[in-house]
Amino acid sequence: MKTARQWLAEYSATHQHPVNKKIHTFCVPAIAFSVLGLAWHLQIPGFWWANAASAIALFSLIFYARLGTGPMAMMTATLATMFGVILALEWETELPMVPIYLGIFIVAWIGQFVGHHIEGKAPSFFEDLKFLLIGPLWVFYQRLFQRD
């Protein structure tokens, strides 16, 4: 398995344009959030306490743990925050959340493809689906350590 640095370097190679980077700053977390929000509504049969969002988070955290304690800690905090917002929205509002999550998902993906059109390079996940998990890590790494 590649190291976190290798994954991030590969991802960075297709994310150099400043506009594409800015778009990713907003759209990647929005996509992750909307996927978890939609998956929240998919109950796992036989487990009253589990849904597809918890399964996605578990498998994602296993992947991040294999990359090291830094990626694992960063993404644990990120997922916990997203779950907190989802719980607040689901339990404390009367809004129809599935259409809202779906709208966020669609708009954010349009943004992603616009960013890659500007970049002139295909999204990394076309090469390897694991880049869908690297994207959120890369965004937070960029914001915390790169500051461009």
Describe this structure in words.
- The chain has 148 residues and is an all-alpha fold.
- The chain contains 6 helices and no strands.
- The chain has helices at residues 4-13, 18-40, 52-67, 69-92, 97-119, 131-146.
- Helix 2 runs antiparallel to helix 5.
What layout of secondary structure does this protein have?
Layout: H1 4-13, H2 18-40, H3 52-67, H4 69-92, H5 97-119, H6 131-146
Helix pairs in contact: 1-6, 2-3, 2-4, 2-5, 2-6, 3-4
User: CA-to-CA gap between the ends?
Assistant: 29 Å
> Which spans of ≥5 residues are poorly predicted at pLDDT below 50?
none
The secondary-structure class comes to: mainly alpha
Mean pLDDT: 92
Total strands? 0
Strand content: under 5%
Largest sheet: none
Q: What is the helix/strand order? A: HHHHHH
Q: Judging from the principal axes of the Cα atoms, what is the shape? A: globular
Helix count, DSSP H or I runs of 4 or more residues: 6
Q: Whole-number radius of gyration?
A: 16 Å
Helical percent range? over 70%
Please supply descriptive tags for the structure shown above:
single chain, about 150 residues, mainly alpha, about 75% helix
Sum this structure up briefly:
It is built from six helices and no strands.
